Amino acid sequence: MGTTKQPQIRIIVLEKGENLTNVIRRLEKGDFVRFHRGGSLLGVEVQIRTSLTGDEPLKWTSGTNHLAVYCQVECTRAGSFKYTFTADDEEAGSGYFLVMPGLTVNGKRLPLDGITCQTHLTKLLGSFSNWEDRLRVAKESGYNMIHLTPIHELGISNSSYSLSSHHALIQTIHEDNHQVTFDDVERFVQKIEKEWNMLTVQDVVWNHAAKNAQWLQEHPECAYNCSNSPHLRPAFIVDRVYHHFGREVGEGKWISRGIPEVVDNIHHCNAIEYILRTEVLPKIRLHEFFQVDAYELVTSIFAGGPTSEPLDEVLQIAQDPEYRRFGSSVDWNKAMRIFNRHRDDATSEDDRLEKCSSAFRDHLHYLNGEGSMGNRYVGTSCYDGPYSLSTTEEEWFAYDQDKSRFLMAFNGWVMSSNPLKNFALPDSQVYLRRELVCWGDSIKLNYRDKPEDCPFLWQYMKEYTEKCARMFHGLRI
Fold it and tell me: A single Gene Ontology molecular function, please (predicted)?
């Protein structure tokens, strides 16, 4: 006769200053985590919070003996959870515990290390009537889990992970005389479990969508675009220059410069790099997006006498959040205190103003030079005039309130980069520097920080995820 597994109690002794980021305690659902004060926390007020229980601190058992009282958490759901604690309202430490998922097949427990899984590309399974025969191979081969790529509608590239609709089934699943539904798939998954003793898991895609997704045209705010992410505007302009240059290469317009229509060796690549750096990219004057209008600033300052609070500090450029040409500025109050000061070498007030203005102007030119040097990767010198009429017109699109919403950034990955860092945020210039290994079929989705920031996208993905969770035994992120 079987015995019921008794819940375990895992004791964690807290010590001040311990941030155990490399220690994970593994538990199962139904187990308990019990927190005790260590010697370094005796006699102080300690509050403990966990991501499993929310923002409210855990309650200590009653008693005055700090060695005996404890806080306890029941592991009610699977997942990785963080705990943090404070001592007398100051951060004192943190750590993690992992609650393992419990899998069952037809009511029988399946240990995680007992999983044998075979992956199938959904787009290769054919119409729904063929699925059972094609998946039966996994059953007869002794597997107990089937892993499917997304079963949803694929985009223009037909990539298994570039979805044009997260709420429609893949095009290949339908029969000539029958439109398959999600309910049909759910019943099939249940049948596999009941008759084959097999579980089914499916991939979910949250961070991008196919570039031809109709819902993105209706809700462009769900993407990183030149309207809600103005820092992408210079990158868009560079992108268009590359597009036009590449088209001209294909038309044979650069043959006389050593670039044939078909680029097939390193010498051609070197010629392309040289021409881009010295002739093509400098013409778009990319540095201007990071510079100030020195003339405008100098003519607007230093009236009313010298400051009474001079400041010795290096003035820096404040980047224009709209990324307009010469749209950046400086901290006006600091500028007044740094440059509008008494001058012993001035013979009159007019002379003082001229000397202060000259010093301010020289510093702005220096800052503009730094802004130009920071973008040396796009050119070594500046030329007058736009690269082409098309590029000039397209630059205007990036600032148009309506059109800029549809200039969307693709997703991809950055080599040797922190995968947890969002490379599409303003503090990153991955798109401008062309460091992104771009997935040209998929638009990067822009959730911001909370559902209120982009309600449609959060609700769209919430419904998609819930539907997948109802159909399958597990989801792979």
Answer: 4-alpha-glucanotransferase activity
Contact of 32 with 61, CB cutoff 8 Å: no
Give the predicted TM-score (pTM) of the model. Answer: 0.81
Q: Which helix (H) or strand (E) holds 36?
A: strand 32-37
Contacts of 23 (CB under 8 A, 6+ apart): 95, 96
Measured CA to CA, the distance from residue 28 to residue 428 in angstroms comes to 40
H-type helices in 374-474, by residue range? 389-397, 455-471
* Selected residue with higher pLDDT from 307 and 321: 321
Give the mean model confidence (pLDDT) for residues 291-316: 77
Element holding 267 (H helix, E strand): helix 266-275
Q: Is the dihedral of CA 330, 336, 337, 339 positive or negative?
A: positive
**Residue 300 to residue 7: CA distance in whole angstroms:** 73
For the chain, the straight-line distance linking the first and the last C-alpha, in angstroms and rounded, comes to 39
CA separation, residue 271 to residues 53, 278, 377 (Å): 61, 11, 16
The alpha carbon dihedral of 229, 231, 236, 239 has a sign of negative
Residue 453 has pLDDT above 50, yes or no: yes
Q: Is 426 helix (H, G, I), strand (E, B) or coil?
A: coil
Q: Name the one residue in this structure whose structure tokens are 């950046």.
A: 328
Using one digit for the tens of pLDDT, what is the confidence trace for 159-188?
A: 999 999 999 999 999 999 999 999 999 999
Single out the residue of 157, 73, 88 nearest to residue 123, CA to CA.
157
pLDDT digits 0-9 by tens, 275-300? 999 999 888 898 899 888 877 777 66
DSSP structure class, residue 225:
B
Do the Cβ atoms of 28 and 102 come closer than 8 Å? yes
Place of tokens 């995820």: 465
Which tokens sit at 39? 């010697």
- Taken in order of first residue, the domains within the chain and their CATH numbers are 9-101 (2.60.40.420), 104-210+465-476 (no CATH), 287-378 (no CATH)
- For 311, phi then psi, to 5°, come to -130, 130
pLDDT at 1 over 80: no
- Residue 242's nearest CA partner among 382, 137, 391, 440 is 391
CA dihedral 361, 362, 366, 369 (to 10 degrees): 70
- Report the candidate in 209, 146, 255 with the shortest Cα–Cα distance to residue 444: 209
Measured CA to CA, the distance from residue 429 to residue 419 in angstroms comes to: 15
Task: Compute the distance between CA of residue 397 and CA of residue 413 in angstroms, rounded to an integer.
Answer: 26
**What's the pLDDT at 379?**
35
Q: Tell me whether residue 84 is exposed, middle or buried, using C-beta atoms within 10 angstroms of its C-beta: 0 to 12, 13 to 18, 19 or more.
A: middle
